[in-house]
Amino acid sequence: MPLITKISQQKRDSERYNIFIDEQYAFSVHESVLVKFELTKGMTLDDWETDEIVYADQIEKAFNRALHFLSFRMRSEMEVKKKLLEKDYGEAIVLEAIVKLKRLGFLNDEAFSEALVRTEKNSSLKGPRAIQQSLYKKGIPKELQTQALEEYTMEDQMDNALKLAEKTIRSNSQQPPAQVKQKIQNTLARKGFSFEQIKQVLNSVTIERDEDEWTEITQNFGEKAWRRYQSKYSGADLRQRVKQSMYQKGIPLAQIDLFIEQKRNEEDGD
C-alpha cells in the first residue's frame, strides 16, 4: 500500500506542503488540507483517499483564488464563479469553494447588492433603472434587486435627478435653453430615470439668458450655420436655411431676425 515517506514545506509558499509517496513526489497540499486529513510521515493512503485529498486541495486553491479576487472590492456570487471557471477550475470545485466563501461570510449577494445601490446612487447619481440593470448584470436575483433598491427612496431619486440637471445647466451656459433641456432629458434617460421623473425635473428647472448672453449665443450658432450652408446656397435660400437651423436650436425669432439682417447688410456692403 502507498506510504507517505516525506512531507516538506515549500520554499516559495510556506502554506503549501509537498507530499512524497514511496520516496517519490506525489502531490502538494495546502496547510489546511494537511491538517484536515492529518497527513503524517508513515501514513498509508489508498487511491481513493489520495483522490479525495487532491480534490479537497483543489477546493482550497479555488477558495484562496477567490479571496484574492475579493480583496480588491466586493463581488457578486456570479462574478466569483465566472472568475474561477476562467481559471480552469471544474464546476464542482467552484461550487464547493463558493459554499465555503458564503459560509465564512466572504460572499453575500444581499450585502453586495445594498453596497452597489449605495455607491451608484451616491457617487454616480444613477437612477433606479440603471442601478437595477447593474444588479442584473452582476447576476443578482430579481427579489434581491427589488429589496436592495428599496433604500433608494423617491426623494433621493429626485434629488439626484435635479443635481444632474443643475450640472448640465452649468456646463452648457453657452447653449440655448431648449438645447440645454434636451441635454438634461438625454442625460437623465441615460442615467436610468423614468419618463415621469424627467418630466418633473424639466418642469421644475428654470434656464434664463440675459440680452448679452442671447447675443453671443445667436452669433455663435448663426455663424456656424452660415458657414455650413454658404457653400451650397446663396442669397434668400442661404438665409432661409440658416434661419431654420437656428430656430431648430431654440433661438428666438427676434434674435434670428437680427442676425439675418446683419448678414443681409454685410452682403449689401460687399
TrEMBL record:
It is found in: Cytoplasm. Residues 62-101 form the RecX first three-helical domain. Its main location: cytoplasm. One of its GO terms (cellular component) is cytoplasm. Residues 155-202, 212-257 form the RecX third three-helical domain. GO terms for biological process: regulation of DNA repair. Pfam families: RecX_HTH1 (PF21982), RecX_HTH2 (PF02631), RecX_HTH3 (PF21981). Residues 108-149 form the RecX second three-helical domain. Keywords: Cytoplasm. Modulates RecA activity. Belongs to the RecX family. This is Regulatory protein RecX. It comes from Sporosarcina newyorkensis. The lineage of its organism: Bacteria, Bacillati, Bacillota, Bacilli, Bacillales. The gene is recX.
